[in-house]
Amino acid sequence: MFDRILLPLDGSDLAERAIPYVWDLAGQLEAEVYLLHACPPEHKTDLGMHQVYLNNIADKLRQRIKENWQPSGEPKIHVEVIFDEPVKAIFDYVKQKSISMVALTSHGTSGLRAWAMGSVADNVVRGVGVPTLLIRIKEGQIVPEKKGLIHKILLPLDTSDASSIAVPYAVHLAKKLKATIALFSMSQSIYALNLYGMGSGLGFNGDSIDAATKKYTDEYLQGVADKIRKEGIDVTQTSVMSMDAAYEILEIEKKIQPDLVVMATRGRSNIARWALGSVAEKVLREGDRPILMVKETA
Questions:
Q1: DSSP string, 186-254
Q2: Residue 55 Cα distances to 34, 240, 254, angstroms
Q3: Calpha distance 251→227 (Å, rounded)
Q4: What confidence tens digit (pLDDT) does each residue in 92-112 have?
Q5: Beta bridge partners of 142
Q6: Per-residue pLDDT tens over the stretch 198-213
Q7: What is the pTM (predicted TM-score) of this model?
């Protein structure tokens, strides 16, 4: 599933902080790694310097993978310098090389507008079409270079087919990384819909509707949990009745401190669709845990 990981680098220390996750995942998933450096055409005179930069990182990656995971063969680390606009270069490269995961930090030379529309990371997760691992780096934060960075995965779901596309990715990672999965879902209260003029009217019992909705959500999570347990993975489940999905996801994130959040970029809620621009964007902007965004395809 994740056999080719792309790591775009722009020469910044911030962008390089994704490296510990890449070598850790590449070692455990036995994946090939592609290091890509995209720069403006006017930098062609510095091609040799750019190649030396990538080759040095590639050598360190190979050594770390061999030392920590003892692969049967030589780790496959590819390097390439492309003279093009970064987002376009990443999109084209993903298609050309059949990349299955893109890993990057929340911002590189795009500036300090973390998760602002127009940033490289935002454009990649919105349009690249493959799962994107985003490592949110706060000022002064250092990612530890250690074996086994991911032990607990948070998987938010909203009972829709759209959000469930993230499930097989979380299960695959949990099996390969020997991680646990914490399922989470929010049932939207009928009173939240009334606030927006939806479902309003006389003669309905809001509490009974909420209870039925919560029961449906719990049964849905139980069904997902049962399937995951059959894969030999430890799983827990939590649901809440509330009005703000993004807020509740961020709260459970703070509470259980997962090593990774796996989340689809779309869902079904009319009030708070789990899509960039709403729930997922808020989770990306305000959360502080690494997150794997899985984009729903048409």
A1: EEEPHHHHHHTTSS--SS--HHHHHHHHHHHHHHHHHHHHHHHHTTT--EEEEEEEES-HHHHHHHHHH
A2: 11, 49, 38
A3: 26
A4: 999 999 999 999 987 533 433
A5: none
A6: 445 555 667 888 888 8
A7: 0.88
